[in-house]
Every structure is written in C-alpha cells, then in structure tokens.
Design goal:
This protein is 39% helix and 19% strand. The protein has 486 residues and is an alpha+beta fold.
C-alpha cells in the first residue's frame, strides 16, 4: 500500500497570521518580543541596545529595528522561510514557536525582513508579497499547499553590506499597511499599547520603580527592561506616583508590597502591589489599573485577565501592580492571552485566589461597607438640616417637598432608633409646611415678581434629576437670604 503524505493547505498561513490575533497591535507585540530575545543573545553587554519603531502615515509604513544579534547568512533563509521550526529554547526565550514573524502578513501589502550578523559582510533580505497571499487564499477555486504558497509569494536574497562588518541588526518593514481601522498607523494608540505590553522600564515619575526592579530581578524569569522608542520617543510603563480614581479623586503611592505565589511545584510567581486606600476603582484611562500578568516582562492577556478570580470582577480594578512568572513552569500560549493548560497553571490560579483574590475581595468589600455607613450618617445629618429649613421657611416646589418626604420616610423605618424618631418629628413638620412664597408673605416680606419667577425656575430644574444638584444649591442660597431677613 502506498503511504499517504499529509499536506498543509494554504489556510494554515491565514490561521497563523490574521487568525492568530484579535487585533493588529498584537502582531507588533510579537516583533518586539523577538527583538528582546535577539538583544539578549547579542555579544557583550546589552545595556546600550535599543528597539526603534517608526510609523510613517504618509507612506502607510511601519518599521521595527533592533540591534540584537541578527541572523547569520548561512541560517537566514531557513530561519525566515520555515514556519514553526524555531530553534529557540522555551526556557530561555520569550518567543520559541517560529510563527510570530507571520503576524504582519495580514495587515500590509509587503512584509520585509532584513538582518545581519556581526562579523559578516552580507545582509539577508526576505520579502513576502502579502497582497498576492491574500488573493490566493481568497481564491477558493485554487487548491495549493502551504509550502508551494510560500515559494510563490516570498523572495530571498543577500546583498553586500556597505557599513561596518561589526554591525548586527534585524529589521521588520510593513509597507502599504492595510489595516481597516488604521491601528498600526495610530501613533498615540501604539505608544499606549506598548507602554502596557512591552518589556520597558518604569517611568521616572514612579519613584518606587527601582525598588520593584531590584526585587523582581532576583527571582522572575527573564526580567529585563529594554530601551524602546516610537518615532524617537522612549516608551515607559504607565505607572506614576499619583493615581487617579474613576470618581475623580486621586491618591499618591508611598509604598509597594511584594508577594509570592507558590504551589507543590515550588515558586511560581512573584508580584508587587501599590499600597492604596482602596477607595474606588482606578481610572482605566491611566492604564495603571488592575493586577497584570507578565512573562519575561511582557504582559500576558490584558487588564481583565485576572478579574474573574475576584468575588466581583471590578475589585481587580481597585488594585495596581504586576505578577511576574518565575522559572519555566508556566508557558504562554500562542496568542499570549493565557498560559498553556498544565498542573502548574492550576497551582498558580489556586494560589492567586487564596492569597490575592479572596482576601483582597473581602477587604475591598469591608472598606466599601464602612464608607457607605459613614456616607449614610453624613447624608442623614444633611437631610435633617434641610427638613428643618423647609419647616421654617417653606418648600420651594412640590417636587422639592416630595423628595424630602421620601427621604425622611426612608430614615424613619421602624421608629426604634434616635434617627428614626427625629425623622418622624421632622416628617410631621414638613407635611404641615407651606410653600416658600406664602411664608415670605406671612412674615410681611415682599414676595415680589422676581422672586416668584426664580422659584418657578428652580421648580422646573428640580424636576430633572440631572439638574437637581444645582437646584439644591440655589435653594440653600434662598434660605440663607431668608434667614438674614427674618
């Protein structure tokens, strides 16, 4: 019997490029990841190394260039044209599957890789005709295997290098970008994304960053930061000393706490967390909210990846910090939005729920209940003061009176507490009260036409919940004038 030879069809390339990622910027992350690995492998110190991202909106092009180790001439063809044949070590490298460089295929008409290794005189250049690739994949009438397709749409050549033999680099060029929402040409969006995802340093405005660096470098696998520039501007992680909360208030980070997560397999992760008052969720616009997972100092998933392991998802957004994987026991999946299923992953999640998810949820809920009690007490005092003024000066509008009556009935409750008894007394007085203009006339004060128009305007404003706060402030001003005249 003749042995059947399996073939990989053309749709494999589609699945490994556009089908791999949920948005175009994830492809950019893959190239940054490869650059970081190349810098780690370069000879000598890597402290002066850098990664440059250049976006040219007029030419609709994006370039990523690093001065990492590069690829030797004799290995360049196989490295750049083979798929899923990476020689990288998963324990030492962030990218090791050999498919990340395909990420740009679906978002431009031409994708070019140029590389040179130190000590060589030649540059290896591999160009992919992505426009033809999309056409061939979309042609259902033409059956073609992946190997033949790659041969049809790729070109490899080596050119004489005009610079120094000591030069070494790897460059990715995406030309004629075809991104429907122009995300790969949106410079502010790219800067924000890379500040959260890429392995970059802490911002100088985060004074505790050096403390975190020192602690993480001791145990977290591949914890390094790289000089990354987008159109000449260096990118930093978004953390700052001042934290803005969603309700508009802010607080300063004075201290950070460190924690580790362990299981039967040993140390799994090391994390840091800002010591905050937990008065509310951190504003999402700051990009500092939530505990975020990182492997090799590159983010896994997004700000919501760990939210499902709190008693309420929003509790994660009260927190600010990172969790870095240690060792090689937890391996990111191909999309880098989670980890591969394993016993160690189960141990990590169990440890996270036990050490972070449950205790922080309980603490946040307790503090929230305490603030609610304090706010209710403060609101009750303010309500009693307002009711007393209505009894003395009259109510401004029927909506004003009804609002106070409802609030007093809510406090009255069963009548057993001191607040309840006082609410009942005030309720009786408010129900007997007159409108403001009648009280003014009864006290022999002039309730002139202007005052009448003002009261009518406030009554209209009070009927709309959106303007009730402003109407309340006007009412307080009127009561103040009335008290001065009495």
């Amino acid at each position: 019997m003749q042995r059947h030879r399996s073939a990989f069809g053309k749709y494999v390339l589609d699945s490994l490029s556009v089908g791999m990622y949920s948005h175009p910027l994830m492809a950019l992350r893959e190239y940054i990841q490869n650059s970081a690995d190349a810098i780690d492998d370069r000879p000598g110190s890597s402290e002066a190394a850098s990664i440059h991202v250049r976006i040219d909106g007029r030419r609709r092009s994006l370039t990523i260039c690093d001065d990492g180790v590069g690829i030797a001439c004799d290995k360049a063809r196989s490295t750049l044209l083979n798929v899923g044949c990476s020689a990288k070590d998963p324990a030492a490298n962030r990218g090791f599957r050999g498919v990340g460089r395909l990420g740009g295929l679906g978002y431009c008409d031409e994708l070019t890789f140029s590389t040179k290794s130190q000590g060589e005189d030649w540059i290896s250049v591999c160009t992919w005709d992505c426009k033809t690739l999309r056409r061939l994949i979309g042609d259902s009438s033409r059956l073609i295997d992946a190997q033949t397709l790659i041969e049809d749409i790729s070109r490899f050549e080596q050119q004489k290098h005009s610079g120094s033999p000591d030069d070494h680099f790897f460059t990715v060029e995406m030309n004629a970008i075809q991104d429907g929402r122009n995300q790969l040409l949106n410079v502010p969006a790219i800067k924000s994304y890379l500040s959260q995802v890429a392995p970059v340093p802490f911002h100088p405005d985060f004074d505790l960053g050096h403390i975190v660096d020192d602690e993480m470098a001791t145990s977290a696998a591949s914890y390094r930061a790289y000089r990354l520039l987008v159109n000449g501007e260096q990118i930093y992680k978004p953390y700052r000393d001042d934290v803005t909360l969603s309700r508009g208030t802010s607080e300063s980070v004075k201290h950070v706490s460190f924690f580790d997560l362990t299981g039967e397999s040993g140390l799994l992760a090391l994390g840091w967390m800002a010591d905050l008052n937990l008065h509310g969720t951190i504003s999402a616009s700051t990009c500092m909210d939530a505990l975020r997972l990182r492997h090799g100092n590159i983010m896994i998933g997004d700000r919501e990846t760990l939210s499902g392991f709190f008693r309420e998802r929003r509790f994660n957004n009260y927190l600010m910090g990172e969790i870095h994987m240690c060792g090689s026991l937890l391996i990111p999946n191909s999309r880098r939005d989670d980890f591969e299923e394993s016993r160690q992953k189960d141990e990590f999640l169990t440890a996270f729920i036990r050490e972070i998810g449950v205790p922080l949820s309980s603490r946040i809920r307790h503090l929230s209940n305490e603030r609610s009690k304090a706010n209710n007490s403060s609101n009750t005092v303010a309500l009693f003061e307002t009711a007393s003024r209505v009894i003395k000066h009259g109510y401004i509008s029927s909506a004003h009176k009804e609002h106070i009556v409802r609030a007093l009935n809510a406090v009255n409750g069963d009548g057993s507490s001191a607040d309840s008894r006082l609410a009942a007394e005030l309720l009786a007085g408010v129900n007997r009260s007159q409108d403001f203009l009648s009280v003014m006339n009864a006290d022999n004060h002039s309730a002139d036409h202007t005052a009448g128009l003002l009261v009518q305007a406030i009554e209209i404003a009070y009927g709309d919940a959106a303007t009730r706060g402003e109407a309340d402030r006007m009412i307080e001003a009127i009561y103040g004038l009335a008290s001065e005249r009495c």
